[in-house]
Amino acid sequence: MHRTLLATALLVGTTGAAVAQTAPAAAQTGYSAGDFVVRLAASYISPLTPSSHIDVIGGKVDVTDGAQPEVDISYFVTDHISVQLIATATRHEISAKNTALAGAPYNLGSKLDLASTYVLPPAITAQYHFFPHSVFSPYVGLGIDFLFPFDTQENTATLGGTQIVQKVGLSNAVGPVLDIGLDYNVSGPWFFNVDYKQIFNQVTARVHTALGLVKARVALDPSVFSVGIAYRF
Q1: For the chain, what are the domain ranges?
Q2: Which of 130, 174, 195, 210 has the highest local Cβ count within 10 Å?
């Protein structure tokens, strides 16, 4: 009898240990220190252009909105703090409105198209995640943005047989970034993300025209709204 009880106890103990060893670990919710996160998003970039100045001919610089895919990567230094690098490129149309060239004798109208350009605005942002281990994880961030215009194409409109805008040169810019967003842990390592960044920078343009050199300065200050999916490694 005692031997039977002892054998039963040993069998139960051995079986319990085996089950404990083979039981799968609980799935991680949210983020932890050491995690890498890659995100693919659709981004809409809207330059606010709160102020601008155009030498000689006056008026205001206007820059159109743009939409493009965005890829970013984040690394969690601690459970709460991550560092993010984003990269995308957007195309924008640049024009001058209500300049002195609108009326006689030039009669170029209230809007003078200057050029189109692509802008590469890589940004590095440090983010603080309030509830990193929760399904819903809001965060705020602060960082720096580097703006690089490229592949600028001048408007080919002519005046008296001469191209009005002959060359446009745009400066690079550096400015601070404010960031706010929310991650939702959909399942396992997959996340849904909504993010808003406000960038502050100023760009200088040198516009060579048929009438001479015109310089313009514009506070571009683009707003970047992104929606995407992310994967945690």
Answers
A1: 2-232
A2: 195
